[in-house]
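Regression report. Comparing outputs from two consecutive submissions.

Submission 1:
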Amino acid sequence: MEKICIDFDMVLEFLEGKFVAVEKIKNYSEEELCVSVFTAYELLSTVSREEIIQQFLSNITILPFDKNSATLASNIKKYLSEKGVDINLRKIFNASI
């Protein structure tokens, strides 16, 4: 079984019942769906119906941000800074997990 990490926008669109997102999630029904701890936080802090988010999060894996993730995130940030690329820190954190 493969892990499929979905981001905030995909989860939100899925929960809103948007066809494309629902179909994508259905296509991964045999896989282990995951979100990062940061995506879980974003969902809990922005969606007003917490019970729906809690139910969704109870059915998927939440990936932690650990020491290895922190090291990788710092390397990604340094690399992108050297290339002159400015990117949202949230995206770097999610990529490092």
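Submission 2:
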Amino acid sequence: MIGKTLLSPLTTMNSTRTASGSWDQGKDFQTVLASALEEVNRLQLDAHDKTRLMVAGGDIEVHEVMLAVQKAELALELTQTVRNKVVEAYQEIMRMQV
């Protein structure tokens, strides 16, 4: 669910040729990245809100809180992994001789 939520915008980043021969890029990288980060933030806030509700004695089941926390944790781990890979790729490009 989380991987599909975070990665689904990437499938729309296809490049197609227009009738004039120029390339139509679809969504740009910045838009995709921003929407993915917003989704991670939303999951974090949702987990936080559900945790606070449970601690305050609200009407919420423990499994709902645990699921929200795990979703947020997995989304954050995926974000960190992607960030690390992007930094690694950038460093590799900077080491290239021209």
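Expected: both submissions complete independently.
Actual: both completed, but the second showed a warning that disappeared on reload.
Relevant detail on submission 2: The CA atoms of residues 50 and 92 lie 41 Å apart.
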